[in-house]
Amino acid sequence: MARVKGSRNADYEKERARLLEAVRVRLLAPDGAQTSFRELAEVAGVSVATLRHYFGSREALLAEVMADMHRRGLPYLLAAATEPRGPVRESLQWFLQSLLMGWRMGVGAVHAFGLTASVGHETLGPVYVQELLEPTLQAAEARLSRHIADGELRRCDVRHAALELVCPVVLGLLHQVQLSGARCRPLDVERFLEDHLETFLRAYAVSPAPESPRPRRG
């Protein structure tokens, strides 16, 4: 029986996933965000018409790549948000070290692609924020909220605190890695993370309550 015109074949989702994987690898290359729709079709081994059949447009394809990257990162984001890691200092130190490790293992390339493709773009900009940037910030918010609830951090606007914790690190890593700042203005990233955490804790950590004065004997 012939397939009804306009309907999807049985392998549609499988082929769509294959195409997504092929173009994802190309888009994460240093110059990937500038790749044309025709070039992406060539990389995937299909015609422009076929790629358009599965994704509609270059803009829609890039948005789907960002959504796919979000899905791939969900287990790590969940751990960053909820995995117990001891008291506040150790917990936030682990969070920042995880961000650094993830960045070096490919997260940096993901953000570089997202930023390059999205800055100044009224459609892709919000997609980058929703799929890639906000999930990291929201994981930080969740971790900070737990320490606020435990009385280790003072009550505050947790969204502002998450921005203060995460954004300097992201900027520093972009500076050193994606922008090759390590060549002209190297930064000891590990030391920066330590200093940054100390500054953050001085601003937000709850000071231990002073001991009550002991009565004098005599």
Radius of gyration: 23 Å
Q: Give the fraction of residues assigned to helices.
A: over 70%
What structural class do helix, strand and pairing data support?
Answer: mainly alpha
User: Biggest β-sheet, characterized?
Assistant: none
Mean pLDDT: 92
The total count of strands amounts to: 0
Question: Could you tell me the strand content as a percent range?
Answer: under 5%
**Count of helical segments?**
9
- N- to C-terminal distance: 104 Å
Gross geometry? elongated
Helix and strand element order:
HHHHHHHHH
List low-pLDDT spans.
none
Task: Describe the protein.
This protein is an all-alpha fold and about 220 residues long. It contains 9 helices and no strands. The chain has helices spanning about 10-25, 35-45, 50-55, 60-80, 90-120, 125-150, 160-180, 180-185, 190-205. Helix 5 (about 90-120) crosses helix 9 (about 190-205) and helix 6 (about 125-150) packs across helix 7. The chain is elongated and about 65 Å long. About 25% of the residues are buried.
